[in-house]
TrEMBL record:
The keyword Transport applies. It is found in: Cell membrane. It comes from the Bacteria. Its main location: membrane. Belongs to the binding-protein-dependent transport system permease family. Residues 100-289 form the ABC transmembrane type-1 domain. This is Carbohydrate ABC transporter permease. CDD domains: TM_PBP2. InterPro entries: MetI-like, MetI-like_sf. Keywords: Cell membrane, Membrane, Transmembrane, Transmembrane helix, Transport. It comes from Microbacterium helvum. The chain crosses the membrane at residues 37-56, 104-126, 135-158, 164-184, 223-244, 264-288. It is a multi-pass membrane protein. The lineage of its organism: Bacteria, Bacillati, Actinomycetota, Actinomycetes, Micrococcales.
Length: 304
């Protein structure tokens, strides 16, 4: 028998834990690993499909009136974009600079108003207890099923009696708050803000509105950023109601660009150049707010 006796091998817990954690990560399906080639391929396809309409508009907008009918059209942009853009800007019937300011002003006011009032109403539905609150919320949600076209005639009669037709306020006032915004903020605040935080604010002597400003509004920042951005884009692209209530001398950008098609012959190179000009402010907005928007969404996801 050997003089040396085999001793059992004991591993420290600190040596076992890393290997066990690696096994658990593999069993969970690679959590924390980088996406594979399929994810990048799918995202690249979505990106190209999203950019194709803009590139097509650039091809037509940088050509001339015959470019859109040319079967051998080159996929390289031409050199007429700035000339076509100047034709849009200098067109007296379009009132481009007036339309640009009207779109910026109305879209900004509408976005800020929708964010504030929707967050305020969402806070009330999510965190305040009052009789009939659920029924009232259901009624607000049900209004989203009503087509916008049904309210155009009475709304126009109302603003005509007020003498607001042709003024930019006629498109701002009806959009100061939306049912979707109220529902969106209600759901977010209901899941994000704990009731204990509200009770702590009340113990400190804060009233309902101060509690909303110090607790609810900061907590709602990620969802409010999403709501504000999409509301701004929706208001910017709105054509139906501004086309009805505004005059050609005081239009928004979608209404002004429609005037480029009022002739018997439509030069689509000029029309699409104007469309690209109207899209540039939105692209600039996404470039400057995209990082803050994503970081706000991730902060809300981690907090939830």
């Amino acid at each position: 028998m050997s003089a040396t006796t085999a001793m059992p091998l004991h591993l420290d817990d600190s040596e076992i834990a890393p290997e066990e954690n690696r096994r658990r990560r593999r069993r969970r399906g690679g959590a924390g690993e980088r996406p594979g080639w399929f994810v990048y391929t799918a995202l690249s396809f979505v990106l190209l499909a999203s950019l194709l309409p803009y590139y097509w508009s650039l091809l037509i907008g940088s050509g001339d009136s015959s470019t859109i009918r040319d079967p051998n059209m080159s996929w390289i942009p031409g050199g007429n974009f700035f000339a076509n853009a100047a034709a849009v800007v200098n067109n007296e019937a379009v009132n481009f600079w007036t339309a640009l300011w009207n779109s910026i002003w109305s879209s900004t006011v509408i976005a800020l108003s929708v964010v504030f009032f929707s967050t305020l109403a969402g806070w009330a539905f999510a965190k305040l207890r009052f009789k009939g609150g659920n029924i009232l919320l259901i009624f607000v949600i049900a209004t989203m099923a009503v087509p916008t076209q049904l309210g155009v005639v009475p709304l126009y009669i109302l603003f005509a009696d007020l003498g607001w037709t042709g003024q930019i306020g006629a498109i701002i006032v009806p959009a100061l708050v939306t049912a979707f915004g109220v529902f969106w903020m209600t759901q977010y605040l209901r899941q994000t803000v704990p009731d204990e935080l509200i009770e702590a604010a009340r113990v400190d002597g804060a009233n309902s509105f101060r509690t909303f400003m110090t607790v609810g509004l900061p907590a709602a920042r990620p969802a409010a950023a999403m709501l504000g951005l999409f509301t701004f884009v929706t208001a910017w692209n709105n054509f139906f109601w501004p086309f009805i209530v505004l005059d050609p001398q005081n239009p928004t950008l979608p209404v002004a660009l429609q005037l480029l098609q009022s002739n018997y012959f439509v030069d689509y190179s000029i029309v699409l150049a104007g469309v690209l000009l109207a899209t540039i402010p939105l692209l600039i907005l996404f470039v400057f707010t995209g990082k803050q928007l994503v970081s706000g969404i991730m902060a809300g996801a981690v907090k939830g």
